[in-house]
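Researcher: Structure for this, please.
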Amino acid sequence: MSRGTSVRERRSRTDSDGINRRLADPAVVGVAVVAAAYLAVFFRITNVVGGTGRTAGVVAVAGLGGIALARSLRERTAVLLAGAVLVAGLGGYLFAIPESQRALFTVRSVALDVLALSTGLSVLRLALADVWVLAVAPVPTFLVGYFAGRGRHVAAAAVAGGTLGFLVLTGDAGTGAAVAGVVGLALAVGLSTLSTPSRRRGHAGTFALVVAAMVVASATVTVIPAGAADPLGLDRGSATLESSLSGDDELEVVGTTRLSPEVRYTIESPVERNWHTGAYDTYTGDGWVRSGERSAVNGTLPGPPGANDSVETTISAETESSALPAPWKPVAASGGGAVEVDERGSLRLANSLEPGDQVTVESRVLEADPATLRNASTDYPTAIEERYTQLPESTPDRVGERTEEIAAAADAESPYERAAAVEAYLRSEYDYSLTVERPEGDVADAFLFEMDAGYCVYFATTMAAMLRSQGIPTRMETGYTSGERVGDGEYVVRGQNAHAWVSIYVPDHGWVAFDPTPSDPRDEARDTRLAEARADGAEDVDTEASAPNQTLEAAAGSNRPDSIGNESGPTTDGNDSAGPTAADANDTNGSQGGSATDISRLEGAESEGLTPNDRPDGSGNGDGEGLPLPDPETALYWLLVVGLGVAGARRTGIPSRASRRIGPVLPRRRGEPAADAERAFADLERLLAGRYRERRPGETPRRYVDAVRTLGADERVEIVAEAYERAAYAGSVTRDEADAARRAVRRLALERLPLIGRFVR
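Model: Predicted structure, token format:
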């Protein structure tokens, strides 16, 4: 009995020592790098939706469990166990989804979702993304630990790399994660192959070049259709504000942007409002995502829960478009084909509108006075509160602290009053500018504490994060401002009217809009951009009704609605919109000034010493003092490219071959005759080595020249050899002899160059 126990103990110690040796193998470093890359993506997701600590704990148990079972579990059994855990986890995820959403699942819809995930559908768009991560992340981690514990480092790296590849396809893994994965895979495979120290020493240089080439390739090539891994350091130019707000289900906050003055729609409406096109519910820290799916509209959708008025709006497309701008809240649409609605109530056309197409939208516009909204209940529906108070776990506490200070200073108690206080604070404390540098880290925190200017996306994102920190359900909304009024109830909407604002949820009333972006400088930027486009003769910036002479007549003959409200507090205009005045809150001035703006505005600005770079729309030509400095990521990328090029060239011997062919041709400064003669022979020796053979150890210059002459070398080599002999042995070479040797070498070198050689023979 004692002997059997001793044998088992020795075997256990042997197994433990074997696992320890396998985990100490250098290839484990590569496996760890790839695993860390995909786990970082999972943790970034849970940082946004919550549950990072819980996920980290489960993943740690899975990884350690895989290592522990490596010595006792067969590989087939381990893989089957991992598969069973994955199926069970996904089953648990399915049953965690609310029954109302689960009832919509079909085999076809699930298959389409899986396909969408592999072609750019972010995991953040899934319902209960934190539960999905909790179900999926432990499985590859278990297998990575298991294979690493068995010394199967390539298999472990393959599992980790496959997981990371999936996350690259979903668009959740960016360039940094992709590059880290490539480096880790290369290290794991390379160090597993180069298993002995001698082989590692012999191939270290080649291996380093291969790794560097893979890094550059992964950073340069756009990996996925969704473009999550954009080429590192390649400047695609600043996007227009409209295009950055038309990112469908994902909205990334960008830096400097431009305005597009082209006409998009002509809208006929009895009310002048912000035209809603979409809303976002999930704040990621650097942008927004809207979760859920769209469904076909069959019949009329419900309106807001409170008192509301029916409004009919006609949208005429001037360019191809799939958006459907209308006053909030749209409940029905006719014309333009099939209409879909998402989980936030935004309408979307299944097929794009063509120029000239018309769609009529019925909206139910909220009818409520400010006092009613101030005194509204805070008994939020659970689903609304959970979805629209979400903030990334990494959101700094100072965002909420500053919001509390602002509310206290304004004596704001109700959510409506707090929203109005934050709106007023942002409007008064920050400037409007389209030329901004995108901040690192949390956008709302950076804008609130580190920036002094931005455009609508920055203002709306910051206000939404601030209100969410107070437990107020808030969402980011996008669309267009009312545009240029060209007649009674008729508006021309351009790309430059693209806009972002926020809405808070008020129980028994619905979504109430607030616009924290300062309106006057925003309108000035749009007016200036439109004036520039008109002065340049740009096409598609006007309709017949919006031409400057027509608009002046229309403006003179129409009465704009007066602002509603007073200076003592926020008001509502009956369209889910609130702010200091109805005009400001809903951007009713839109681009009205554009009709009366001409090139004299630009001339006046420049006469005051403003350069094109100072224009409020940021449309300058960049001819300022000094060149813009590249960002660190760009500089690092090109430094890596240059370093790889130099190392690769040296490894392949390209510099030495180029030196042999081109060096003698390059002009050189004249020195002492003896030095020039010796340099000429050195150049000749490199030329002859490339064409005939190298000079052997111990072979004299004369013997070498005689040997290559027998191989067909030109007789002019004798001139160079004689000059060298006089310089090296007699020390009496003349200036003419040295110059003759230099000319002979240069001539021989030129004759060997492609194309040029045929002209100098």
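Researcher: Any notable elements?
Model: The first helix runs from residue 2 to 24. Confidence is low (pLDDT under 50) at residues 196-202, 221-237, 551-628.
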